[in-house]
Amino acid sequence: MSIAISALTPPDAPLLVLGIESSCDETGVALYDRRGGLLAHEIFTQIEMHRVYGGVVPELASRDHVRRVLPLTRAVLASAGRQLSELDGIAYTAGPGLIGALLVGAGVAQALAFGLDIPAVGVHHMEAHLLAPMLEPDPPDFPFLALLVSGGHTMLVDVEGLGRYRVLGESLDDAAGEAFDKTAKLLGLGYPGGPAVEALAAHGNPSRFRFPRPMTDRPGLDFSFSGLKTFTATTARQHAADPAAAADIARAFSDAVVDTFVIKCRRALKQTGRRTLLVAGGVSANRALRLALGELGEEMKVAVRYPALAFCTDNGAMVAYAGCLRLAAGVRNGPSFSVRPRWSLEDLAPPGAG
Fold it and tell me: Does 352 fall in a domain?
């Protein structure tokens, strides 16, 4: 896979970048070459470890990252036929995320960079998701509208270029992925919730229940899924004696979330005039959402773009790519580093600004 990085990259820019992702419950490591594209990537998911608790346990997540980062790094280098000594830079997720988990990836990255005497750069997790579709053979061009939907974040972003982001709307409470997980728990489906709710919803009757489409009856582009979760819980209690109701409830919940995204995306596309809608984050793998946004794209004559399914969830490839862009533009972090469990996308700036 060969991907151009555009005029942002000067001829003497770093060529080979190791990316480390450790913001939550996936350990991702990847190797990205400016000229050769993505050379190798590995992901280890902690789903089985956290399943018994019904969600991510931060301390357990951090400890598992400690166990996985270096073996995955060795595996990626071996797969690509490269050595640590060949690296030109290292990128790591600096936030937002679980602070202990972030510190593992950041600490390993900074230690490697110091030992190899190469630059390191901390990457914003949501910027990495936003840029993940650029890993595709025919990457979209700036500017575009982005819908970022994951377990921790839901937002609409107007993207003019690298670091030039304007958040148009975001969730005021639960993120969409979090709402899926909580709904799965209500329905006894276990963890992770998104795929489980999607699978059950495929067998549900779309006409039996109609759930509210939150915040679509008022102006603006913000989201709210807490009330929808409560409505789902109330409906589940009312029909607890009916074993067939779970699939119908899952379908009604899923339809409500998808319709909400379609309504908000249509509104944002009209507001911004953008001709490309980029959808990224773990929830972007949802098939019903992809189908509905595809129909919206055809209706509005807008291109709808996604990352590959392997890069919808957290991964090292998106971090390596985002880091390569910023390292190529001269962005560096010193050996004294910090991570940010909360970090607004709008706090980022284009390389060289300020």
Answer: no
Claim to verify: residue 242 and residue 203 sit in the same structural domain = yes
Residue 34 shares a structural domain with residue 146: no
Quote the CA–CA distance of 36 and 38 in Å, as a whole number. Answer: 7
Instruction: Say whether both 73 and 208 belong to one domain.
Output: no
Looking at the fold, whether 148 and 81 belong to one and the same domain comes out as no
Tell me how crowded residue 294 is: count the other CB atoms within 10 A of its CB.
12
In order, the DSSP letters of 208-258 are T-----TT-SSSSS-B--HHHHHHHHHHHHHTTT-TTHHHHHHHHHHHHHH
| Domain co-membership, 118 together with 200 | no
On whether residue 82 sits in a domain, the answer given is yes
User: Do residue 128 and residue 148 come from a single domain?
Assistant: no
Task: Quickly tell me which residue has 């939550």 as its tokens.
Answer: 24
Flag whether the pTM goes above 0.85: yes
Question: Can you give the pLDDT of all 354 residues of the chain as single tens digits?
Answer: 333 334 444 555 558 999 999 999 999 999 999 999 999 999 999 999 999 988 899 999 999 999 999 999 999 999 999 999 999 999 999 999 999 999 999 999 999 999 999 999 999 999 999 999 999 999 999 999 999 998 889 999 999 999 999 999 999 999 999 999 999 999 999 888 899 999 999 999 999 999 999 999 999 999 999 999 999 999 999 999 999 999 999 999 999 999 999 999 999 999 999 999 999 999 999 999 999 999 999 999 999 999 999 999 999 999 999 999 999 988 888 777 889 999 999 999 888 775
**β-strands 144-149, 154-161: how paired?**
antiparallel
* 289 within 8 A of 259, measured Cβ to Cβ: no
Q: Give the pair of three-digit tokens for residue 175.
A: 């993120």
- Indicate if 298 and 316 belong to the same structural domain: no
- 271 residue type, one letter: Q
CA dihedral 211→192→196→243, nearest 10 degrees, is -70
Q: Please give the residue range of the domain that contains residue 281.
A: 141-306
**Residue written as tokens 């979209």?**
140
Q: SS3 for 204?
A: coil
Q: Pick the closest to residue 45 from 18, 70, 72 (CA basis).
A: 72
Judgement on whether residues 172 and 298 belong to the same structural domain of the protein: yes
